[in-house]
């Protein structure tokens, strides 16, 4: 049973990760007329068939080079696809040292060719700073800006590939021994990575992006690499990529909207002179900023006006609420009497005229030289005036004052 299992595993691996290598033309001088000429361009072709478009099932696994040259720094080495796309493998590396022997360029190598030393034996990432053949070769772009994958994916591999070797400096020459290009089936199997999970403010939109190969299909039905979403509740968006004959891969993004709302509840819907009102914002958020510069869930105000609060939640979403606090004046009262003289034991009718908002309530009492005489009495008035009787206490003589002790209307107390 162990032998059968191993055999099945090997067959599966060979199918999934099949490699196909094509050999280029070798035995070419560098430059072509060496040693009579010491600068020039050597081009070696490699005919590729049966691969098709790259980035599907097939991808470039590696390019292997063996060449001799007496001054490696003279050389710029490029791979040119049948459609003319260019990838810089190595340019002006190695100083005055010699040769590229057993040099393998592959995207998954651990170091760039610029980190190696002649004869550069082993696996190296292509230098990948430029994607053209025009000297001088710039070191400005970052290493690995261009790779086998991002340069040639989508290109038809069938046709003549070219190893382009430019010898730009005089005196030294060399020879291309051989080179090859290897394609694999399976290393470019479907892959897709979606954006990280996101938190947004309710009502906002956000862009989520997938990175991978193949044909995209989102759970929304979209077929583009990026989509804009604006969920009203936590929503999972799934993206699937399909590579014909290679299968599918999927990933998902959870987008969570965080609602935020603002409201103001006053301790009183209005304010009276000399009084205060507390304005309370709805609790549960991390930040509160009021239009008067105060902070916190509530503020105490002493005047009428419009007050605004901005609330902020944990991810920075904001909402604004305003409250117009109206002011009401204190009520006033005036007392009138047609005759202020009265007999002992008699009563007198007074008229009270009130200004404010009914109903009114006031209390009055007799005073003699600022001292209270008897108890105060309360009167409720539904209109703007009332007649009421005052009867001095028995035995009292002299000058009595009728004094209003308290006064209130529907809004304020004076």
Overall description:
The structure is a single chain. The chain has 414 residues and is mainly β. It is built from 2 helices and 29 strands. The chain has helices at 2-16, 148-152, and strands at 18-23, 28-30, 40-48, 58-69, 75-80, 86-91, 100-105, 122-124, 159-167, 174-185, 192-194, 198-201, 206-212, 215-218, 226-229, 235-243, 247-258, 264-266, 277-281, 287-290, 298-301, 305-312, 318-325, 332-336, 348-355, 360-368, 371-381, 385-390, 401-408. Strands 1, 2, 4, 7, 8 and 10 form a 6-stranded mixed beta sheet that branches. A hairpin with a 3-residue loop joins strand 16 (235-243) and strand 17. The chain starts with a helix and ends in a 6-residue tail after the last strand. Residues 1-17 have low confidence and may be disordered.
Quick structural gist:
With about 425 residues, the protein is mainly beta. It has helices spanning about 1-15, 150, and strands spanning about 20-25, 30, 40-50, 60-70, 75-80, 85-90, 100-105, 120-125, 160-165, 175-185, 190-195, 200, 205-210, 215-220, 225-230, 235-245, 245-260, 265, 275-280, 285-290, 300, 305-310, 320-325, 330-335, 350-355, 360-370, 370-380, 385-390, 400-410. Strands 1, 2, 4, 7, 8 and 10 form a 6-stranded mixed sheet that branches. The protein has a 4-stranded antiparallel sheet with strand order 3-9-5-6. Strands 12-17-16-14 form a 4-stranded mixed sheet, with no helix packed on it.
